[in-house]
Specification:
- By secondary structure, the chain is an all-alpha fold.
- It has one domain: 23S rRNA-intervening sequence (de novo design (two linked rop proteins)).
- It has 5 helices and no strands.
- The radius of gyration is 19 Å and the shape is globular.
- It starts with 9 loop residues before the first helix and ends with a helix.
- The model has no long low-confidence stretch (mean pLDDT 86).
Length: 153
């Protein structure tokens, strides 16, 4: 695949359509006082999904592509989280929330399938050293003792 074929990559097309739906079907329901908070977060996360799929698609090694797909998947989860918050705050109807959630879940499945395909295909494998790898690693949670902080101030 080349960058020229991006519009033929179904997961990118569907994620771009999802971002448009966020702009057209979700954002207008948010109140004006959320313009610089929830609205901006939703728009940026929605834009990030197709943008990261496109960036990965433009890389020549499958592991780079996979890494950007992981980022896109994270942005998809972020949009879902923001939409749930918007629904819980009473900004989104259940109908819009359910429709957008179903769309997001469908894209998530397709993105996971695309990631699996990329890992199997190993396109560009010979361009990097054999031990080169990309993997998801969780970061440890750090818990601060609030009582300790209060005592130091």
């Amino acid at each position: 695949m080349t960058v020229m074929n991006l519009d033929k990559l179904e997961v990118w097309v569907r994620s771009k359509d999802f971002a448009l739906a966020v702009y057209k079907d979700v954002v207008p329901h948010l109140p004006a006082d959320e313009k610089w908070n929830l609205t901006q977060q939703l728009k940026r996360a929605a834009q990030s999904i197709p943008a990261n799929i496109a960036e990965g698609h433009g890389r020549f090694h499958f592991l780079d592509n996979v890494r950007f797909c992981y980022i896109a998947r994270g942005s998809l989860s972020e949009v879902q989280s923001h939409m749930e918050l918007a629904r819980d705050l009473g900004y989104l109807s259940d109908e819009i929330y359910k429709r957008m959630t179903a769309h997001a879940e469908s894209i998530g499945k397709q993105l996971n399938n695309y990631i699996a395909y990329l890992k199997r295909s190993k396109q560009g494998k010979k361009e990097f050293p054999q031990n080169y790898s990309v993997r998801e690693e969780s970061e440890p949670y750090i818990f601060d003792d609030l009582n300790e902080d209060e005592q130091n101030h």
